[in-house]
Design goal:
Order of helices and strands of chain A: HHHHHHEEHHHHHHHH
Strand content of chain B: 25-35%
Number of strands of chain B: 12
CATH architecture of the domain at 50-124 and 138-274 in chain A: Orthogonal Bundle
Order of helices and strands of chain B: EEEHEEEEHEHHHEHEHEEHH
Shape of chain A: flat
Strand content of chain A: under 5%
Oligomer: heterodimer
Helix content of chain B: 25-40%
CATH superfamily of the domain at 50-124 and 138-274 in chain A: MetI-like
Shape of chain B: globular
Distance between the termini of chain B: 36 Å
Largest interface: A-B, 26 and 42 residues
Number of domains of chain B: 1
Number of strands of chain A: 2
Strand order of the largest sheet of chain A: 1-2
Helix content of chain A: over 70%
CATH architecture of chain B: 3-Layer(aba) Sandwich
Largest sheet of chain A: 2 strands, antiparallel
Structural class of chain B: alpha/beta
Amino acid sequence: MTTPSTIKVVPARYPLRTLGAFVALFVLAIVVQSVAFNPRWEWSVFARWFFDPVILEGLVQTLLLTLIGTVLSVIFGGLLALARLSSSWLLNSLAWSYIWLFRSLPLIVVLIILYNFSYLYDTLSIGIPFTQISWGSYQTINVLGQFSTAVVGLTLVQSAYTAEIIRGGFLGVDHGQYEAAAALGLPAWRRTVRIILPQALRTILPSGFNEIISLAKGTSMVYVLAMPELFYTIQMIYNRTQEVIPLLMVGAVWYLVITSVLSLIQHLVERWLARSERRSAINQQSPARNVSRQPTLQTQETAHAPVQ
Amino acid sequence: MRLSNNPTGHISITGVSKYFGRHKALDNISLELEPGSVTVILGPSGSGKSTLLRAINHLERVDEGFIQIDGDYIGYRLAGDKLYELKEKEILRQRVNVGYVFQNFNLFPHLTVLENLIEAPIAHKQLNRKQAIEQAYQLLDVVGLRNKADAWSRHLSGGQQQRIAIARALALRPRVMLFDEPTSALDPELVGEVLDVIKKLARSGTTLVVVTHEIGFAREVADNVVFMVDGKIVEQGSSDEVLNHPQHSRTRQFLSKVL
């Protein structure tokens, strides 16, 4: 008999993975070489424009649109999701129709319709319909400027998608959790916010961040309103200077930066949410195990032994 | 500690029936359960035991008949000679008097053990946060898990999770405690620790109704044993009557298989 301490553990080896890594590195080297040493990429132009104030101004507009669009569509989409899940058939069918309508219409169509809203209605007024009572009246063309049209359009479309993602997350929570909350008589609002939502977030977040990222890029669509966000700014510049590729690269890299930051935030939020799942013994991925060490055994015992 | 507010918890079930589509899950059930008594409901699977238990807490609406706890109609309000259906809000408030323990524990996994225990009393404004925490530690003493207050429920064994679930149900100081197969999801060696906690509650003045397959537990603790088949009560009486001298052949058949 060999005692446990004398047995040597040999980790499994995967030679094909090593080979694959070399091939990947080789391909990467080719790409880097071609991008860096082909003069037509005009990296000097890229460097000149990257931090240009005009570009940065466009970037700020893009970020603002993304931020406001996200916040508003999460709020509105959340309400839509709750309406879809409610037992009231009226709320349910209203929310369903809204989602049906705005998932069917392309964003660009919604934006252009909104931008031409002043053609349909000259003024927008707040008051009681069918009476003379009015608290204020505004020229449509002043209310729906470029920025507000963009915000309204993005929010209208985005919240339809967000609502479905949030609803999916709520449906994904184990039914037993609803029952446990109901058995404790927790009020509906508290049940939703304290018990169900935190658990639903785990499924909502990955697809939710997908939506935020596509919103960040989708803001480029508002160029049809001639609004000077990042993409429209870049178009204006390259139409003048004819340096198309380097300026598109400026935009591409800035979009990459935005997406990377969002992905980082997603990673941190998901890790924080998973804190109740982590079990130090299991989740730390250790490639080789420690042979003949007691601690792993002991933690298992304490997890199961009845405490007197 | 006193686990219930007052020595009440009289359950009265009158002519209750429940349909799932065309299937009759409960068929004209009538039962009287005295305050502070321990009732064990036995029966083969699909006999309607759990449905009856869920109906007592209005997790399941009954189609015919009534259930009363201390004279209050579950899910309804009596005014004059009419019964008015309660709104969801009022039903939730009614559930404060009834604790429910699930087969699968259903602890809130994103909250620590302590947070699980203080959630309901704070939500119902029975206690402020400080009092709720104090009470939670007392309840953890009752179930013998004081040292697990800050643990996540996922990291506990099944037996420990179920004991926490019992403590969570007790946190509202209910008059009635319902147990839906509390040990069925547990490894055999963990069943004892959960049954020990339930036995502790048996003489505390709270009315207990336990759906279980643990005949030994029924024999030791139950005042009444109810045997159900196909949504009907076949036999009921003291544990000695039903378990040792069953009158009905269906009961004898069931007991011979389980024992």
